[in-house]
Amino acid sequence: MSAQAKKRIVVVGLGAVGALAAWRLSQRDDVEVIGIEQYGKVHDRGSYAGESRVFRTAYHEGGRYVPMLQESRRLWRELEQQSGRELYLEVGALSIAQPDRVEMRTTLDTVREFDLPHTLYDTEELRRAHPQHNVHDGDVGVLDHHGGGIRPEVSLMAALDLAEAAGAQLHFHTPVLAIEEEPGGVVVRTPTEAIRADTVILASGSWSTRLDGRLRDLLRLQVLGLTWFMPTDIAAFLPERFPAFLRDVGPVHFFGAPSLDGYSIKASSNPTWPVARDVDEVPREYTRHELVKIGQQAKEFFPSLNPEPVRSSVHHCAYTPDRTPIVDVSESERVVTVTGLSGHGFKFAPVLGEWAARLATQPGDAGIDPHFSLAAHLDRLATVGPYRGGGH
Asked: How far apart are CA 356 and CA 121, in angstroms?
C-alpha cells in the first residue's frame, strides 16, 4: 500500500495506553502513526511512573478482567521479546487477608473460575513460606503464580522505541490545545501547527477532561502516593525470594514489590487525599504527617523495615464512578477515547492499546465489551454520581 493511501492516526498522549497503542499501530503497514506528548519521552508526571507496577491475574476486582489480564500477559511477553528488555518480572503476587474479606473471597473466586495457577496458604503456612510479613492470626494467603511486577518506565520506552523504529512520528514537549472534528477528518491543534488526521486516539489520562468536555462530570482525579523503605536484610526482599504483595486489614490496603534497586522495597498504602477535578489541584508531595503514618503501617506489616521512607513520590489517575476504564469511539468513528483507568489500568495497557488500535482501524468489528463504552459510563454516572474517593 502506498504512503498516500495509508490511514493517518494521531495518538494524543504517550503514557501507558498511548505508547502501547502507538506500538500496536506501528506494526500495521496500512497506517501512518503520529504520536503527540506534552512532556518528554517517558516522564515522571504520568500515572504510570514509579519504578514498578503490581501485575496479577487472580483479581479481586472481578472475573470480567481476567481474560484481559491473560491477554495482557501475552502481550507484555511479546513486547519483551521484540525489545530485548526485561519488563515483566513473574515473581508471583501474594494476597494476604482474613478469609471473610471481600477482596480475598473475590480473588479466590477468580482463581477457581479460571483455573489460575496458584498456591493457597493457611496462617502457619504463610508464616513459614513468607517470613518477611507480619502475618496476623487468622490470615490466609493466595500466591498468584502469573503475578509479579511490570517495570513501567522501561516498558514505555521499549514500546516507543519500537514504534519509532517502525516509522511512527513522535512529537514530545508538544501540548495539544484542541481536537476538532471536521468534514472528512479530525484536526489536532498544538501551539505551532494544526495536524490533520483520519482518526485520533485520545489517551491523555488525567488531562483528558481538558480535551473532551463530556468527561468533565464523569472523571475525578485520585491522588496516588508511592513510598520505598529499607529492610535490615535486603537479601530477603529480592525478587527471587519476595513476591509482589497486597495486604488488606481494616480500612488499609497495602501493596508493593520486591527490591529492584538493591537496597529498598516499594511498600505503599491506599490513598487518603480528597479527589480533584484538574491536574493543577493535585499535590506533588506527601506531608510529613502522611509519611510518618505510612512508615508506621510499613513497620506493622514488615517488622524488619526501617519506618523512615528513603524515597516517595505522588502521582494521580483519572477515576470513573465504578473504576471501570472508558474505551469508546465517537459516532463519526473518528475519535477513539481510552481513559479513566482508575488506579488499576497499567497492567492492562497492552490490551487497552490494542483495543484503541482496533477501534481506530476497524471500529465496527473491534469486539470491545460495551460495559466500557462512554454511554454506559454516563448511565452509571446518572445513577451513582461521580467517584468520591477511597479506592485503591
From this structure: 39
Pick the CATH number of 3-48+153-219+321-384 from 3.40.1280.10, 3.30.390.30, 3.90.79.10, 3.50.50.60: 3.50.50.60
Question: Both ends of the chain: CA-CA distance in Å?
Answer: 46
Burial call 326-343: b when 16+ CB within 10 Å, e when fewer = bbbbbeeebbbbbbbbbb
Side chain identity, residue 69: L
Which CATH code for domain 98-148+221-318? 3.30.9.10
- pLDDT tens for each residue of 21-30: 999 999 999 9
Q: d(Cα 132, Cα 328) in Å, to the nearest integer? A: 43
Cβ atoms 116, 261 nearer than 8 A: no
Q: Are 227 and 268 in contact (CB under 8 A)?
A: yes
Whether residue 59 contacts residue 66, with contact meaning beta carbons closer than 8 Å, is answered with yes
Q: What's the CA gap between 286 and 273, in Å, rounded? A: 10
Tens of pLDDT, residue by residue over 229-279, are: 999 999 999 999 999 999 999 999 999 999 999 999 999 998 788 999 999
| Choice between 189 and 4, residue whose per-residue pLDDT is larger | 189
Residues in the chain: 392
Q: 244 has which bridge partners?
A: 93
Q: What are phi and psi of 121, to 5 degrees?
A: -130, 135
Residue linked to cell 478469609:
99
